[in-house]
């Protein structure tokens, strides 16, 4: 009895394992793919985005993905998939309904002086087919435009209305809100450099328009400044903002906190590779940062370019130099490893590589 039960379970398992295959085999073959309802968008443009193929089994999952892919083109307001049986398979038909032609574009919430600037930001124009993908691109560009002017609360809405000529009117509605200026920039964690030294690196400052993109660039510039003063692993924690209003003027106080980390000094410069053109001492004497000096990443890049020029003067226009950094985080030291591969003169195809690899040494 037990053996019989095991046999039944095993048989069922085998059937279940092969069910997906059987389902594929049972699916009819796609003999032809058609697109209907499109007047302006070329059929080939639609077929390029779908995964269903002629002479392949029909897949309901793939059809759902195809419908989404066609919709994501942005030109259609309605989509459906139809199947017509044929003798040896079926015809797959994608029925589409295109959006209307844009007959007019109007602007609300802005004066005439600004309309021309906004028109240049639009990624669509009159007589185009309405496309919600292009509408989103335009909305993002206009929003970013006003954010850079300090209107952080600006909102943009772009929508269409049917007109009497089987087309549509597109309305660009802009609510700028109040302009936001920088009230104050508070900085924490900067024990090595004063607030004024850090602020001097920033475009984001008192009374200027607040732009989040400019602030992001400011933070990158400050981190780069720290790295070139030996604080290789410096970084900012997440910024905080406090918005307020005084005398009808919106303002923001920005709270920044930097983690400086440890300052690193060069403990050793090690040359690897077979150096026939220049001796190790010649290379090290021309290399910056030097032993005992602060780790300055920009100096390493400049030194590698300098060495490249020196090799070039000797006819070695192709040279491979790899720079690795070996950190002792606890001791605040770093060893610079230079791997130099001298290629032959002339057209040997080599390149210069400069990159960093970091790991902790337990000393």
Please describe what this structure looks like.
The structure is a single chain. With 363 residues, this protein is α/β, with parallel strands linked by helices. It has four domains: 22-98, Ubiquitin-like (UB roll), CATH 3.10.20; 101-175, Ubiquitin-like (UB roll); 180-259, membrane protein fhac (Ubiquitin-like (UB roll), Roll); 265-342, Ubiquitin-like (UB roll) (Roll), CATH 3.10.20. Helix content is 31%, strand content 30%. The protein is built from nine helices and 13 strands. Strands 7, 8, 9 and 10 form a four-stranded mixed β-sheet that branches. Strands 1-3-2 form a three-stranded mixed β-sheet. Strands 4-6-5 form a three-stranded mixed β-sheet, with helices on one face. Strand 5 and strand 6 (167-175) form a beta hairpin. The longest helix is centred in the first third of the chain and has 25 residues, at 2-26. The radius of gyration is 33 Å and the shape is flat. Mean pLDDT is 86; it is low at 1-25 and 347-363.
